Amino acid sequence: MKTASNDGDTRALKNRGLLLALAALLIGVVAFVALRSPETSTGAVQKVTIALPTQINSALVHVASWQGLFLKAGVDVVTQPFNLGKDALQSVLDGKADLAVVADTPVMFALLGGADIAVLAGISRSRRDLAVVVQSDVGINQIQDLRGKSVGVTMGTNMPYFFDAMLQARGVPSDKVNLTNLRTDALISAFKAGQIDAAVMFQPFRAKVEAEMGDRIKVFYGEDVYASRFMLVGKPFYIDGHPQEVRRVLSALIAANLAMLADPVEARRAVGRAVKIDDAIMAKLFEPEDYAVLLDQAMLLALDDQTRWAMQKGLVAPGPMPNYLNVMKYQHLEAVLPTAVTIVH
Q1: In angstroms, rounded to a whole number, what is the distance separating the alpha carbons of residues 5 and 159?
Q2: pLDDT at residue 7 above 70?
Q3: pLDDT value of residue 278
Q4: Which has more pLDDT, 280 or 115?
Q5: N or C: which end of the chain has fewer CB within 10 A?
Q6: Quick one: 103 and 241 in the same domain?
Q7: 186 & 243 share domain
């Protein structure tokens, strides 16, 4: 496991604020043209169902919906909310949604399990979305103190990979920690009741726990070891059969990215309304630079790292490393915004 999420990725994250500022005008021009081109401004408005987690990682979808950017692009987007991205992905696999927003780890597990999934774009990348939350009175002052403690995670998500990265970076063998597999509501309830010593939590649920419990908890971030990536995915059959709708969705998300950069406060409020988080709390959570519509090489490297980790842990059957480039439907994003595609292909 490359717990630093690759040196190149770290440098890219440090420079992203500057790059986004420099690219904002270009993105705006491209989005303006895309949203008003003959391809996207004529014909019937087509319905597209997007399953997504009620997390701030889905911010671009929330902003595009709030500002009517999907309709301006020529698509009627209906969203299906789920607590977890892996459940949103399952909705696509079950044929109940056309596209899904999901973290890269569930995508990796699905692909290794034989699911037919393709990636259209990354839409967020954050280093502070996931964190380890501990009870203040159980003697845990650093990650090393988790030896022998019980920690709640949700298997099949990016939580176990993140937590293993945290342990490895601090020199703690993963078998020295007792993992408890719980879904979101049960995990939070167990933590608040003191049934587990610590839990891996994501936003906005962590913010709600922090607001309720205050100084009774401590939070450990892992920005030095992990970047949480969320993607827009779908079945290849749907994507290949609906190229126009797919490109309209991507155009709207790019326009939402521009709107977020131009007015981050309004964007933050739109996301807060969608995930039901007070704006005062959202102001502490929301980082506009975490959002960009792109396909980059770091995404492929992260999938490779997680695949090796899953095989080493026995979570998937050992085998040859897949070529994740084969599941990247980069042609659609390339058609809308060529500079957003930097994977080698």
Answers
A1: 15
A2: no
A3: 87
A4: 115
A5: C
A6: yes
A7: no
